[in-house]
Fold:
Amino acid sequence: MAATQPAEDLDASLTRNFPPKRRRFATYIQRTWPLHVLLLPAVIIALIYSYVPMLGIVIAFQDYVPWLGIRESEWVGLDHFRYLFTYPDAKQVIFNTLIISSMKIVLHMIVPVVFALLLNEVRLSWFKRSAQTLVYLPHFLSWVVLGGIFVDILSIRGGIVNRFLSMFGIDPIFFLANGDWFRATIVLSDIWKDFGFSAIIFLAALAGVNPALYEAAEIDGANRWKQVIHITLPSITPIFIVVVTLSLGRVLDAGFDQIFNMYNPLVYAKGDIIDTFVYRIGLLGAQFSFATAVGLFKSVIGFILIVISYRMAYKWANYRIF
Amino acid sequence: MHYRSTSYTIFSIFNYLLIAVLSLLCILPMIHIFAVSLSSKAAATANIVNFWPVELTFAAYKETLGNENFLRALMIGVQRTLMGTAFSMSVVLMAAYSLSKSDLRFRGRNIYAWFFVFMMLFNGGLIPTYLVVSSTGIYDTIWALIIPSAVNVWNMILLLNFFRNLPSELEEASLIDGAGHFRTFFLIYLPVSMPAVATMTLFTLVFHWNSWFDGIIYLTKMDKYPLASFLHTIVVKENFSEVGVDVTRLAEISNRTVKSSQIFIGALPILLVYPFLQKYFVKGIVLGSVKE
Structure:
């Protein structure tokens, strides 16, 4: 059937009919130049604003002075990295990043799955739809807006949360001014914002389970709990593995937008993370080279982790991005 | 059968309750802020407002919408969102069309693809990016918020997967009939991809409306800030003197109610597009995961 022959074969056979090399290149250009042109704007922007900054990383090995530029600034080798690993603040910042992001990763692993499983047991469809409408909403609000809201409701002077706790005789809690409470607040508010949205992918997987499986199990005498264990859970295991492995790749991202909008000098000791640290010393403190070195440290580790996690996701669950 | 067992009924009751509580928890903070913004100064400072306005008044909204600095930021926010979305979507759609061709038909396609994927995995970091933006002539203009973030690789991948799953007969027929790639893209691919394009457009709109950090680092003066950056500065940093809020007026109108009204106006556009978003985003997420 000529009509349904894949376009690839058609084209490949056409190209093969022109053996001389120069002719072949001319044909290639003639056939594909519009495709190159369509890619051009994206390529130019990516080159300037993503690839040139990657070259700019060299200032991590310099003592960069803006008015001297990259060519004139002094080279200092690995001095900034040595400083990074001996400077106590920097070590604390790396530790904070790891502890906050690992708490987030663990909770993001559990809460959305449990929520999806519970929602899957809801039979009333209007109830299910309304719940979904409400829990997806916070995902779309920015941390500027939510930071403003949280600062207000968590205030110790009459914030609604502390007023609610006082009904049970609990003294006001310094959610955003005490380091340990700050970490807990950051982690919990992050879960609050995204658990619903993260559950979507599991709900999609649950909706795809063949109902005949449940019917068969029921006839065989399995109760609902047994059905969940033997049918529902195995059906979402592949997507669960993908989500978990991919989240491991972001272990150095503790959530700049969120922390930057919620922290204050009182909690720097326990709440300062790599990204906020880079911003403060780099852009506010104008230590361009040291900040770049810290950023490079993060980018390199992050790159390695993401590549590993994609490979694992591909290996275990056959996941690929395109 | 099992739906009628006693243990399952008990579980169901608790389950419905738990989900109802969780769902309410997701919007109560917003409702509280809205209620505070509509309450009187006295009620707000006495901390008696819960989820319903006490002594209903629109004074805070009058103050906020009468503040020309706030209005200017609002207009810049709208402008940035519309321009940024149009620009980013054009760039991303064109690239996604080319990348949706197989490597056999478009040799070099894989090189381009890896060029973009690498951007997603690695970046130069904050400082080098800042130094590049500040030396390319767009620094301190609205373009600094539009151009550097335009190539959204994730959107590009979702769209190219969508294009790839369109029947190849569409393209063959179009090319055989003598249309070039440009016409095939504009007249065939774009019209049949409207659901995917709409989804990505909504996501990009939300992204631009919510972006605040680039405004803070790439713009030097507050009177050029879009609303999100402006809100960060006044709501989170409480930098009132810089924004030109009249301090004597503040005594009359509670700082807290004004702040709440500003936060609510900042969230309002998202709440307005949310019904459309919800219609599309489930599709949008599934969009990227269907592969052949």
Remarks:
- The beta strands of chain A are 62-63, 74-75.
